[in-house]
Amino acid sequence: MLQALLSGILVGGVYGLFSMGFSIAFGVMRIVNFAHGELVMIGMFAAFFAYSAAGVDPLVAIPLAFVVVAALSAVLYLLVYRRFVGRATLQQLLAAIAVALILQTSATLIFGPSAHAVRSNWGSQYLLIGPIFLSYAQLAAFAISVACVLTVEAVLRKTSWGKAIRAVADDPEAAQLVGLNSQVINITAFACSGALAGIAGAVLVSYYPVSPHVGFLLMPIALIATVLGGLGSIGGAFVGGIICGVIQQMTSVLWTSALQDVPLYGVLLLLLAFRPYGLFGRVSAH
Amino acid sequence: MAGTIDSGAPVPAGLPGRAEFRQLGYGVALVALVACLPLLPFANSYLIGIVVRALIFIALGQAWNVIAGIGGQLSLGHGVFFGLGAYGTGLLFNDFGITPWVGAWLAAALAGAVAVVIGAITFRLRGIYFALATVVISLAFEKLARFYFALTGGDTGLAVNFRGTAPAVMQWREPEAFLWISLAVVLAFYAVTRWLLRGNFGLALQAVRDDEEAATSAGVNVYRTKLLALLLSAAMTALAGTLHLQFYLSIDPGTAFGLSQAIQIQLPALIGGLGTAGGPIIGGAIMILLSEGTNVASSRLGLDGVDVLAYGIVLLLIVLKAPVGILGYIKSKRLQRSGRAAPAGGGD
Q1: Does A259 contact B at CB distance below 8 Å?
Q2: Which chain B residues are within 8 Å of A244, Cβ to Cβ?
Q3: Would you kindly state where each structural domain of chain A is located, as residue ranges?
Q4: B45, B38 in Cβ contact below 8 A?
Q5: Domain presence at residue B313
Q6: Which residues have a Cβ under 8 Å from the Cβ of A49 and sit 6 or more positions away?
Q7: pLDDT at A103
Q8: Which ipTM value was assigned to this complex?
Q9: In the CATH scheme, what architecture does the domain A2-113+131-274 have?
C-alpha cells in the first residue's frame, strides 16, 4: 500500500509536469489541446533518438526534447490554434484531434508502430528502503519534474511575462481590457506548454517505452489532472497529476494494472457530472 | 449524388420545385447504379467490397449525424455503440446461436439503453465538456473489452463462427448480398435523416441545437429530446456495427471502441456537411476514395497507416477552411453567385 502510494507519487510527478503544460494552454488561451499527449510522445521520441543515435542518456537529452517540442508547438500555434484563442469551441477540439491524428500517424510512418525502450545501466536498478523499493529512473524523473515545476512557478510569479500569463489565466476579460492578451504572450505560452510536454517526454522515456500510440494514453491524464487541480491555478494541475499517479498505482495493487486508467475516467465523469458548470474553475461550460 | 442541398427548412408540402425533381432523379439513378453494380461487366469482388465499405462508413456517418449534426451534441464516444452492435451481435451468435437478423436488433436495443445511461450523465454538460466526457467513456470501454477476454476475446478480439454462405445467419462468401443490405440500411438512414430534418421531433431537436434556452421557452423538453436523439443515433450506430461485423467477420477492442474509430465515425458527416441528409453520403464516398487511393500509394511505398494521415489532414483542412463541410461550401458559393436572386436548389 505504502509502496503503491510512493510509486504513484513518483509516476504522478511526470504526469503533473505535462499536465501543467496542458493547463497553461487551457488557462491562457482556452485551448483544449487534444494533441498534448502527442507532444509528450514527440519529446519521448526526440530523447529516444538521441539515445539510439548517439548513446545519450534521455535525461541528458532534455534540452533537445525541450527545443524540438517547443518549436513544434509554436508552429502548431501559428498554423492552427491561433484561430481559436479564447474560445473552447467544438471546432477547436476537432482541429486539435486532427493535429493529434497527423502527429500520431506521422510518428508511426517514421518510427514504426512498435514500442521502443531505453536500456540505461542505472535506470533498471532499484533503491531499497526496508520493504519499499523505488526505481532510480522514477526517482530521477520525479526530482526533475519537481525542479521544472518549481522553476515554472517561480517564472510565473517573478517575471513580468509570468505575471501576464497568470493574469490572463485568472481573468481573460480583465486581462484583455488592460491589453495583456497579445500574440506574443500567446505564442510564448503555447511554446512553454509544449516545452513542458517535451521535458516530460524525455524524462518519461527513461523508464517507459515509447510508441506512437502513447499520446492517446497520456492526453486523458493531462485532462483529468487539469480538472482535478482546478483551473486558474497552473500549479494545481501538478497536484492533479500526482493524484492521477496515485489512483493508477492503487488500482494496480488493489485490482489490476490492465485497468489502472479506468478509475481515472470514472473520477473525471463524476467531477463533470456533479460540477457541470463550475468545473474548470470559473469557466462556464457553455 | 443522392445528396440534396438541404438546409432543414421545411419546404411547403406538395410543392416540390424543379430542382427537387432533378435531385430525386439523380438519387434514384445512383441507387440503381449501386444496386446493379454486380451486373456490370467490370465488377468484381474487390470493387464491390470497396462499395460495401463505403456504404458501412456512410451508415455510421448518418447515425452520428443524428446526434452531432442535427442535435448539435458532438459525441466522441460513438465507438461505444458501434462496438456494442458488433460485439453484441457476435456474442449472441457465437455463444447462444441467435441469428444476427435478430441479434442486430437486440444489440441495437442494448446500445440504446447504454446511450440513455451515458446521456443521463453527460447531457448535463454542454459543448466541449460533453465531447470530452464521451471520450473517456469510450476509452473505458476499450480498456474493459481488452481486460475481460473471457467474454470479448481480449486484444485479439472476437471472430464470428463462419458457416460459408448461410443467408439464415447473415453470412455470404461473396459480397453482393452485403452490398444490397448496406444499401438498404443507408437508404433507411437517409429517410430517418430526412424525417428528422422536417418532422416535429427533428425540428425540436434542431431548436435544441441552435439555442437551448429558446427551445425551452418554446416548450421543448431539452433533456428528453437530447436523450431520445442519442438513443436513436446509438441504435443506428449499433446496426451499422452489426453490418461491419458480418462483413469482416471479426471485431477487436481497438476497432470497436478505440479513439481513432470514434474519430473516423465523425468524418463522413464533417467532410460532407454536418446536419444535412446528403452530407454523410458524399463525405463517406470521399473518405473511401481517399483511403483506397492512399492504400494503393502506401502499399507501393511499403508504408502503413497513410490513410489515417490523410484523414487527419482532410479533417484539419475542413475545420480550418470549410467548417460547414462540402455541401455547406457549395451552398454558400451558390448563394454568392446567384446574388440577390432567389436561391435555386431548396436553400432557405
Answers
A1: yes
A2: none
A3: 2-113+131-274
A4: no
A5: no
A6: none
A7: 94
A8: 0.83
A9: Orthogonal Bundle (1.10)
